[in-house]
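TODO from last week: model Ubiquinone biosynthesis monooxygenase COQ6, mitochondrial.
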Amino acid sequence: MIGRGFPKAPRSYICPSCSRSFELQSRRHATAASPDVYDVVCVGGGPAGLSLLTALRSSKATSHLRLALIESQDLERARTWNLPPDQFSYRTSSLTPSSLSFLSQIGAWPNVDTSRVQPYRHMRVWDGLSSNSRISFDALTSEPPIASMTENQNLSRALITSLDDLPTISLFDKTSVADIHLGPPLSFPAESPTSLDLSSYPHVTLSSNHTIAARLLVGADGLNSPVRTFAGISTRGWDYDRHGVVATLKLPPGTGHSRENPQRVTAYQRFLPSGPIAFLALPGDYATLVWTTTPPQATRLKALSTEDFVAMVNAAFRLDVVDLNYMFTLDSGQVGELEWRESVHPGNKADLGGETPQHIASVQEGSIASFPLRLRHASTYTTNRVALIGDAAHTIHPLAGQGLNMGLADSHSLASAVEHAVLHGADIGNEIACLDRYNEEMWMSNNRMLGAVDKLHWLYSATSGPVVGLRGLGLRTVDALGPVKGWFMRQAGAL
């Protein structure tokens, strides 16, 4: 631990809330006298890392802690990010009510550009192999929206702006991690009575050759986390052999200006054998697409002209799977093929009173991209003086839209655990005194979500046999049982 004046011997501490006994040294904090030692060093400046630091700075109990952020990208670009009203980034997320509450609590939500946020109050989900197997979720007028869509960069800019308004943290952006190692043991006799034993402290060497020590090192550094590697934490999981194709879609002019238009406040998701396709409204006449499909189909989609790409999106929400699969075999001409098939089967052309999304008019230039889908889960989120949050701790299939929400929930929980430790005079880097509280709260909760989403993926990948009939029956049954459906909504919004 960092600070002034070691006590000569540890003292016993019994937590009044759990009655556990800890052997703790007196409370000490980093000071200007040890400029390269920080209470919390966070590697990774995405929403998870930024929200953690904002939460620590905005809390009275932890506002005095010495904080550092290491980020390989130029955060000035995120700070000054700005797009015109008729352009949207394809990297978007749906924020649950719990995430919005956390962002409001730490003072970040007022800095979000709400003109670029689209709440939705309804969800329509159906099985691509069984047209009568549907489920609908609807938020009451008195309830908060099911979720709110916004661009990840809109959120990152808000979090950076919030941090700028709080006491200064040490920012090492445009800087990568060159090495992480434990500090040298304290020499005896100590150089002075206040010398710190940094042998258990992670020492982070930066690409600038500067080295800083961390009382608590937080890995918010993504799937291939150097912090997780340093801590020796293993992961389990697998690749799905699927890619997520994303794009910003444009609706026919004038159809999206009213947020009370049912199709502007509704999220749509159709489960196809290759994976789900989701349409999520953005402000104005825009929407975001997330289409899970096979790598060859993802390559084919990205190679199409924008007109044929739009035809494929419209077909994916309306045509039978056999028709859609045939259209994937064509190098071009999907526009004419869709028009012909809709003329032969007029029912495919209708929007069914809001039960399917409106026909897409066009796609924003340069917005089509794809990424591989994986499941990963760390065996633990903590070791001594190390904690993992966000994608460093878990990577989830996007079909439930929970990835960013899980990362924000991690940040909320870890910030609360650090706050609890500070208020109780405990070492914020100690597993028993602090970090176990975070690990116990979030690991199992996230594991349940990862497992549920993984099982949904495999369930809806089946194309024949009794599984198709049983899953259709299950979908219709849940849709008919209000209390059960309400439980599913609460589970999705609890993160």
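Done. Confidence is low (pLDDT under 50) at residues 1-14, 19-35.
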